[in-house]
Amino acid sequence: MRLTTKSLAEITGGRAGLAALVLLAASLAGARGWLLGFFRWILQIATVAALFLGMVFGWGGAKPWQIFGSAGTHELRHTAAHLPIPENWVLEREVDHLSAHDTQLEQRRLTSLVPDDVELADLRAWLTGDAWSALGDDSPFNSLQLEYCDPEHSECHTQEVTEDADPRFFVSARLSGYWKKGLSEVGVTLEYAEPEKLEITRGEHFLERHALMPVPDAWVRYDTSEGDNSTGTSVHMSYGIPETDGIDDIEAWLTDTSAWTEFGELTGQGCRDTGSGFWLCHADVDRFCPDRVGRSPYERLSVSYTPATSTVGVQLRLPSATS
After folding, report:
1. Mean pLDDT throughout 197-201?
2. What does pLDDT average to over the chain?
3. Helices (H), ranges, the chain
4. 3-class secondary structure, 154
5. What's the predicted TM-score (pTM) here?
6. I want to staple 283 with a disulfide (CB 3.0 to 4.6 A). Which of 94, 105, 177, 266 is the partner?
7. Contact at 8 Å (CB) between 313 and 282?
């Protein structure tokens, strides 16, 4: 068979087409392999991210709102801008503070210059005054409640009153000196945080007992601490109380038998001035614990009262369990 120019071109073109098909198939195979490799890489990153978030939320104790934010963190600067700063205070500077995980804004501090005749009583009056409620029903500041004022450090602390355990706002103000004569400095800190310091983690027993304790409505719990020793386990709760309350009111609270009926009648109540700036009261709870050993088989209630800060500490101790 003699090859003509036309037939040679056809054969050559056919081979070229076959080669092109082979190259296209190879390209598609390579692309498929690249895509599979890309998706595998994405899956590995997602797995590592899931493990990391699990460690942060579980082992690290972070909250989702601290990582991803919430209305409180996203609007903290805007919220701080609506603090009812008195007209004769001159705003000097503002500083942001990130969370422990450096992901969300949780605190904003405003420092103002004030007349040097401003005292701690003025800070207290400002934090408890009508300026906060005048901000409107939608403001978190219209439900602020004073925790306590500390004369030693010239500072007052408040918290937003809320029924749930969601993050809430805390506002504190601290008075300090200033280098320029005739002026003082007030630092106002707006914090958005989980009220973890109020949680009781010692078990259902203390949660149930605390729920039955007839704590006056006007008392504001601002701290909780827990401990163990050779005589038992205890939970200590700190409260801010009205300035008008005194040791007589504390004693009346402890001796009001009708108030303690559900919790357990108190016996052996007695309060004394320690001479160190606070009063101390002790009482046994008429609730015998037969499976407990220690110096007393009864629950023990201790109450301390500090007039300078208008604060009360309430400690409930459960005797050691039988080994």
Report:
1. 66
2. 76
3. 5-54, 64-68, 71-74, 76-80, 120-127, 204-212, 247-254
4. coil
5. 0.68
6. 266
7. no
